[in-house]
Write a structure and sequence with these properties.
The structure is a single chain. The protein has about 325 residues and is α+β, with helices and mostly antiparallel strands. The protein folds into two domains: about 140 residues, 2-Layer Sandwich (Alpha-Beta Plaits), CATH 3.30.70; about 150 residues, 2-Layer Sandwich (Beta-Lactamase), CATH 3.30.450. The protein contains ten helices and ten strands. Strand 1 and strand 2 form a beta hairpin. The longest helix has about 35 residues. InterPro entries: GAF.
């Protein structure tokens, strides 16, 4: 990933330690029996393999729902061609109907369930049977689902397995909550680390600080399906607002884990707001605009990270087509 104001990519020496802190080196190894899973990713992968071996089905997934995006975090695919990172419309899915009680968690013949028979995803891929279990976060809110589909109807005996699959889903949620907590703590620690890397003129994060923080957040987004909002603040060329004063005003309305950085060599700033969906992004934009009333003429824009494209694409969109490729995150 790159930085505001340069064409270079992030050096491996920066990315490697960030990645190693966030993703255990055990991720590509086979875990010995009876040892705890060091990461949610490993636990999810083994759970999906077990469920496929135990119950069949052409596709088992762990997913994240974020607004109307349905993001595949982990997949055990045997025929559908679905890979981690794929994004579908949440409203089209069987899972969106299941979590609001319009369909059962287990449907051996999904066409017999009106809500599933009418779901748009059924016209996109062949589905004869469905399993879906909600995954919850620490507050008991919906994070995503543990789910499965198969092109062929299955035996009604599968319904007897609902309690076992629900138990597995609850255990996965427990692993997830623990890792989300440690991930949030790692973000806060990194925020403190990069706070020492500042641009002297503006007081905003420097190039190096932005690189490290944005690269780590992109990994987090890919791992957990987190949203993010990015803001750009452009001081018009005919204004002489001191950047340090602008940064100070904006910083007062940002949270502890939200950062602001200077686009190198420009009178332009970027802000990254982790775990901020479109609604939170609109509120943040309004707060920033209010904070900048003493600086008329500054143009503020906001864009949400697209899970298909990442933070870099959001930055390029904010900074304009003429700058695309020059300041990757």
């Amino acid at each position: 990933m790159a930085v505001p104001g340069t064409q270079r990519t992030v050096p491996a020496t920066i990315l490697a330690p960030i990645y190693s802190r966030m993703v255990s080196h055990f991720d590509n190894q086979i875990m010995p029996a009876h040892k705890p899973y060091p990461t949610f990713a490993l636990a999810a992968a083994d759970v999906l393999k077990y469920l496929h071996n135990r119950y069949g089905f052409g596709l088992w997934m762990v997913t994240r729902t974020e607004e109307n995006d349905w993001i595949v975090l982990h997949a055990e695919d045997h025929g559908y061609g679905v890979k981690p990172g794929a994004v579908f419309r949440w409203a089209d899915s069987f899972c969106s109907q299941m979590v609001i009680g319009r369909g059962p968690c287990i449907a051996p013949r999904s066409d017999d369930v009106p809500a599933y028979a009418a779901a748009p995803i059924g016209s996109q891929v062949q589905i004869g049977a469905y399993v879906g279990i909600p995954l919850k976060d620490a507050d008991g809110e919906l994070f995503g689902t543990l789910c499965a589909i198969d092109p062929l109807p299955q035996s009604d005996e599968l319904i007897k397995e609902q309690h076992a699959i629900e138990l597995i889903g609850r255990l996965l949620s427990t692993c997830l909550v623990a890792e989300l907590k440690s991930s949030a703590e790692a973000r806060s620690d990194l925020r403190l680390d990069v706070s020492r890397l500042v641009d002297r003129e503006s007081g905003a994060l420097s190039q190096a600080g932005w690189e490290q923080y944005a690269a780590a957040e992109e990994i987090r987004c890919q791992k957990f399906g987190h949203p993010a909002t990015l803001l750009s603040l452009k001081v018009p060329s005919d204004q002489e607002w001191p950047l340090r004063e602008v940064v100070s005003a904006v910083s007062k309305v940002l949270t502890a884990d939200e950062v602001i950085a200077r686009v190198e060599g420009k009178s332009e700033l970027l802000a990254l707001l982790p775990e901020s969906d479109s609604g939170a992004g609109k509120l943040a934009l309004a707060k920033v605009e209010e904070a900048l009333k003493a600086f008329p003429g500054i143009v503020v824009k906001a864009v949400s990270r697209d899970p298909r494209r990442g933070i870099q694409a959001a930055v390029e969109e904010l900074l304009g087509s003429e700058n695309q490729g020059e300041r990757p995150v």
